[in-house]
Every structure is written in C-alpha cells, then in structure tokens.
C-alpha cells in the first residue's frame, strides 16, 4: 500500500472479486490442470465462433489442419532430401536424386504459407463478430431483466465483469487459433520424430519443458500482479480524469486541488512503476533459468544424437531431420504454453460473461402473459406490500388505491415515504410481494408486461439525458412511433420547450452533449422541459410524473404543473408525485403516504377539512410565502403564464 492510497482512499485498494468465479483461480494452476481444461475452453471458443460466423470458423479450422499436415509432410521431405544428399554416388547424381523432394518441399512450403494467410484473413473476420455476438448476448440478456435485478448490487457487479468478457471472447479466437496451430505443428514434429527413432521424442520434451515452465511462471506472476494492482491503477487513472474533468475544473483552480492531486498521481504512478520493474526482473531471472536448463538439455540431446550416429543406430539423414524437428518442435512448445496460458486467462472472463447471461435469464421479465384491454381505464392496488431485498421493513405495506383515466391523481408524503417505489409498481417495473396490482382486473403478475409498458409514460426527476440530438431526446419517448420532425416539434411546443428548441444552434438536430464536437449543453431546467416533451411525445395512457419540476424556476414550475394537469383527458391518467403542495390542489384525488401506508386520501378540500397530515404539510409550505400563520386559501394560485415558458392551452397538445 502506498502513502497516497492511505491518504486519499483510507487504506489499500483491493479488487472486489466476490462476484467473480475465477478469483485468483489462475494462480498456482499447473500445466496439467491447464491441459485438462483445454478441451472445455476450445469447445467454448468454438461455440462462440460458430454462433458468430460458421463459414469463417470452418475456413480457419481447415486452414489450421492443412498447416499441420504441411508441417509433417515438410519434415518427411527434409528427411528424403537429406537421405538423398548424404547417400553414396556422384555429387551430381545425389543432387539429382534430392531434386523431386526439394521441389515437393517448396510446393508444401507455398501451400503452408497460403493456408496461414487464409487462416489469418478468416480469423480477422471472425474476431470482431465473436466480440459483437458476445456483447449482444449479455446486453440483450441484461436489458430484459426485472428492475429489481438491475438495482441489486450483486447483479450489477456481474454486469460490470461481463463487460470484460466480450473483449476476452475476441482475444480467445486468436489465442485458440495459435494454440491449435502450435499443437498441430508439435504433433507433426513429434509424429515424425517417433517414426524416425523412438528415443528422439523424449529428447524434444527434455529441451522444451524448461521453456514451457518458464512461460507459465511468467504469465502467472503477471496475472497475480494484475489482480493485486488493478484497483491501484484504476484509482490513479481516476485521479487523472478528475484533474482534467470539466466538473472539477473550478475547484481544481480556486482551491488549488490540482497540485495536491498531481502529487498523489505521481506517487501512485511511481509505485506502479516499481511493481512493473519487479515483474521485469523476475521475468528476466525465470527466462534465464529456463534458457540455461533448456540449453543443458540441448547439449545432452546433441551428445546422445552423436552417439546414436557413431554407433550406427541412426543414419546421418535421420539425425539431420531430427535436428530440424527438435528445433522447430521446441520453439512450438514454448509458443503453445504461452497461448494456452492466455487462453486460460481469457476463458475465465468469458465464463463470467456466460454466468451473467445465465443469471439474467433467471431474472428476466417474463415474455407474454394475459392480454390487457387495448385501452385500460383503471389500475387498482389491493393491499400491496413491497420491500427491497436489503431491508427488513417493507417500504409499502397494505397500500390500496386506484388510478383512473380522465383523472389527475397526486401522491404526497415525506422523504422516504415510498412514493417513488409506488410509481415503479404502478409502471409495472416492480411486482408486489403480496397483494395485487390490477390493470382493468388483470393481475400484474400474470399480465403481458410488454402491454403494460406500452400504456405507461414516465417522467422522473433523474430522467435520462441522452447524449444525442434534441430531436432524438424527444423521439426516444416512443421510438417505434412513425412520427416525423413536425410531431417532435409539436411535442416540444406543447411541453413548453418550443422556444428552447428553436433557440438551439441547429434546432432539433442540435447535439445535446459537450462530449462530442459541436455539442451544446442545457441547464437543469431546460433539460426538464425536454423530459416533459419526451413524455408528451410518448402519448401514453398512464403518465407517471415523479418530481418533475425540481430544477425549474418558479414561473416555469407553475407553467409546467399547469401543462401536466392539462395532459389528463378522458383517455389519459396523470399520476403526480411532488413535494410542491400547491401543485396538487387541483388533483382529482390525493393520496398521502406515511411510512409506506396510505394515511389519508381525498380531494384537496376534503383533506384540508380533515385537518390531518395533509393539512399540516400544506400549512407548513403556505407559511413560507408570508409572515405569520396563513390559511391555505391565502397561498397564491398558480399563474397560467410566464415569460420563461408560455404554457400551451390546456388540452391543446392532443
Ligand atoms: N433500490 C432500492 N434498494 C433499497 N432500498 C431502496 C431502494 N429504493 C428506495 N429504497 C428505500 O425505500 C424507501 C422509500 O424510498 P422511495 O424512493 O420510494 O421514497 P420517496 O417517498 O419517493 O422518497 P423521496 O421523497 O425522498 O423521493 C427509502 O427508505 C429508500 O431508502
């Protein structure tokens, strides 16, 4: 741990591997275990590749097998050439005798080179497709899970690590091809050596084994170091990002935080550099030891081969071929160990991706279910109870209410009363633990959820600010609606975002993101108008609006509430969650949530007359507008117009 880690982060940063099935699995793995896992890894790679591009996979397979055969044939031809050259007779005659094998050897070398380039081209075609297929597999699985899974911390970490799996899948193709290639060349060399003389095969193993061991040690040490240092690296790149980010720029300058962070950035980088140097030293030592052992084995081999030749057990041509086969074979074995190690490492990440896909399938929103009426008129809660997994107490407990088209329903209550949770149940995003949510009598648990979502529009406080054009930011409320620019513009106008959109440098085509060149940014209140325009464009039967106006100025807020109320019509229900009591006065029905229960319900007048919680909350806010206690009636009525955003006439949007 570095002093900077202690000072900035309160202690050593460790990679959270709780989610991962391969926590340090690779460390201490033996060559035998890697070899045993090999068929499974190859099968996994083949499955991914077959899904991505079957044709390219066949091409790669055939080209690799062809190269293996070419390598074996090449060695046999070397043996024939040497046999002819080292035979008896005139030099010219011996050369003549070697010619056919030499020509055949040339042809085989050309065929081998062609097959290698064919394999390279097909692998290059396959790799991006495998990455895309793997990405699509987990993205489409994650997009379809219940909201409750997305909010679950464990599942979130699975999603994060699955993201690494897709690029690993891509690299697995290349590593798989190298492994198969090395394996086949090695088999060719081993086969030829065995045929030449049985004692030659152990010689190959003797020379190659130390290099294999060295490669394995180096890879494992690197992996262990990466696992240990990954958080440290992430932290120092985090500091780098904050040093240059737009958000932190004012504080960096005014508070002088730049020099402070730079100092820690340098200190943390120095630690990482020391680790890299240590790894390099260890690697150099291991490789030197492996080379020494391998060299020793080579000396023993050449001596043994010499003795075999001298004693007449092996003729010169065979010995010559053996030298070639042993040299190519031992180089191939070294490459095999490296690619096998890489394959093992990558396959662990791909296994995490597969794990995420499997978990996502278990938590997917069911497809199909009971059909809803085309135009649902009422959603009813019956004794609904709901709790989050990490909380003992339920957030909603025995909630009964109803929401009807043609009405504005308001939900009020203190922070943490359960209002937003209730909205998510209304939207069909969460299912009750007990009780029922009925869509025109159809239980949400059995209902076709796609049909539920089709009738819902959402505007939340933290609605998405897509880093795309203003038009797309509105159109994305109903991506399947075949509306053109006129409809989008009309939605913007109806939501009070007309002047805003018109004032943008390229109107609806203006990119609302400073991340890209030529992009513009909006203020919080301007973004909220875009959010309302999106809801307007969606044109849903049940419009759920959760704290929509927190960033609007007072005039714009009043106009926005008027507009939201105006959206209710015979064909639409508006449900409004807000802390602004003035905004709920004209709601048709108001529910007061307290501690997850409906404490009161009724109209504004009924609730005031009851003198309960609602009346107290209303009086508390009204008191802020003037000195001394005020009657609720003294609260200023919402004005219907304001210079910031002229409201559309009620109902004009439809
Ligand atoms: N995803 C979640 N996981 C666990 N607990 C949650 C989650 N979302 C909300 N809660 C908890 O549930 C309770 C109700 O939260 P909710 O957001 O529904 O309240 P709210 O009435 O909308 O509050 P606010 O007025 O502050 O927006 C809170 O105590 C909150 O901490």
Automatic annotation (TrEMBL):
Keywords: ATP-binding, Membrane, Nucleotide-binding, Transmembrane, Transmembrane helix. Its main location: membrane. It is a multi-pass membrane protein. PROSITE patterns: ABC_TM1F (PS50929), ABC_TRANSPORTER_2 (PS50893). Residues 644-654 have a biased composition (Pro residues). Residues 68-345 form the ABC transmembrane type-1 domain. Residues 623-643 have a biased composition (Low complexity). Residues 379-620 form the ABC transporter domain. The keyword Transmembrane applies. It holds the Pfam family ABC_tran. It comes from the Bacteria. InterPro entries: AAA+_ATPase, ABC1_TM_dom, ABC1_TM_sf, ABC_transporter-like_ATP-bd, P-loop_NTPase, Type_1_exporter. The lineage of its organism: Bacteria, Bacillati, Actinomycetota, Actinomycetes, Kitasatosporales. It is found in: Cell membrane. GO terms for molecular function: ATP binding. The chain crosses the membrane at residues 65-86, 98-118, 183-207, 288-310. It comes from Streptomyces albidoflavus. Gene3D superfamilies: ABC transporter type 1, transmembrane domain, P-loop containing nucleotide triphosphate hydrolases. This is ABC transporter ATP-binding protein. The keyword Repeat does not apply. Residues 623-654 are annotated as: Disordered.
């Amino acid at each position: 741990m570095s002093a900077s880690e202690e000072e900035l982060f309160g202690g050593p940063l460790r990679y959270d591997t709780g989610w991962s099935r391969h926590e340090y699995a690779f460390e201490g793995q033996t060559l035998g275990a890697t070899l045993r896992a090999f068929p499974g890894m190859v099968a996994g790679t083949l499955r991914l590749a077959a899904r991505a591009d079957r044709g390219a996979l066949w091409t790669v397979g055939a080209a690799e097998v062809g190269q293996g055969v070419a390598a074996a044939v090449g060695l046999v031809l070397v043996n024939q050439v040497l046999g002819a050259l080292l035979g008896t007779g005139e030099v010219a005659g011996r050369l003549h005798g070697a010619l056919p094998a030499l020509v055949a050897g040339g042809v085989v070398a050309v065929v081998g080179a062609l097959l290698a380039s064919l394999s390279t081209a097909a692998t290059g075609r396959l790799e991006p497709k495998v990455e895309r297929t793997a990405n699509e597999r987990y993205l489409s699985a994650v997009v379809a899970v219940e909201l409750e899974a997305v909010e679950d911390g464990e599942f979130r970490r699975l999603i994060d690590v699955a993201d690494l799996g897709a690029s690993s899948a891509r690299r697995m193709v290349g590593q798989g091809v190298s492994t198969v290639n090395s394996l086949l060349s090695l088999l060719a060399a081993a086969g030829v050596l065995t045929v030449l003389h049985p004692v030659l095969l152990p010689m190959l193993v003797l020379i190659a084994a130390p290099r294999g061991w060295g490669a394995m040690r180096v890879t494992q040490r690197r992996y262990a170091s990466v696992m240990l240092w990954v958080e440290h690296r992430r932290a120092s790149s985090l500091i780098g990002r904050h040093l240059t980010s737009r958000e932190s720029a004012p504080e960096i300058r005014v508070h002088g935080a730049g020099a402070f962070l730079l100092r820690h950035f340098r200190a943390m980088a120095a630690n990482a550099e020391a680790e890299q140097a240590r790894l390099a030293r260890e690697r150099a030592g291991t490789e030197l030891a492996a080379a020494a052992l391998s060299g020793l084995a080579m000396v023993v081999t050449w001596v043994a081969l010499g003795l075999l030749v001298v004693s007449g057990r092996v003729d010169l041509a065979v010995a010559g071929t053996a030298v070639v086969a042993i040299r190519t074979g031992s180089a191939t074995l070294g490459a095999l160990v490296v690619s096998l190690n890489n394959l093992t490492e990558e396959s662990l990440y791909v296994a995490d991706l597969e794990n995420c896909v499997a978990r996502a399938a278990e938590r997917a929103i069911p497809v199909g279910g009971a059909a809803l009426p085309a135009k649902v008129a009422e959603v009813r809660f019956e004794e609904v109870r709901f709790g989050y997994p990490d909380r003992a107490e339920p957030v909603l407990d025995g909630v009964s209410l109803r929401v009807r088209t043609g009405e504005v329903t308001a939900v009020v209550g203190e922070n943490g009363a359960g209002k937003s949770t209730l909205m998510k149940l209304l939207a069909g995003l969460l299912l009750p633990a007990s009780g029922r949510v009925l869509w025109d009598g159809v239980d949400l648990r059995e209902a076709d959820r796609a049909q539920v979502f089709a009738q819902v529009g959402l505007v939340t406080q933290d609605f998405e600010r897509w880093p795309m054009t203003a038009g797309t930011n509105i159109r994305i409320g109903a991506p399947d609606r075949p509306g053109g620019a006129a409809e989008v513009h009309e939605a913007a106008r109806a939501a009070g975002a007309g002047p805003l959109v018109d004032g943008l440098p390229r109107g609806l085509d203006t990119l609302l993101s400073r991340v890209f060149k030529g992009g513009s940014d909006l203020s919080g209140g301007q973004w909220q108008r875009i959010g309302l325009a999106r809801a307007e464009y969606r044109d849903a039967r049940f419009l759920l609006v959760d704290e929509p106006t927190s960033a609007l100025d007072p005039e714009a807020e009043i106009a926005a509430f008027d507009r939201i109320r105006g959206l209710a019509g015979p064909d639409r229900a508006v449900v409004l969650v807000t802390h602004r009591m003035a905004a709920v006065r004209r709601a048709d029905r108001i529910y007061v949530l307290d501690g997850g229960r409906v404490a009161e319900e009724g109209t504004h007048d009924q609730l005031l007359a009851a003198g309960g919680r609602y009346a107290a909350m209303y009086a508390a806010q009204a008191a802020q507008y003037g000195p001394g206690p005020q009657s609720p009636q003294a609260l200023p009525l919402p004005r219907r117009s304001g210079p910031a955003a002229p409201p559309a006439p009620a109902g004009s949007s439809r």
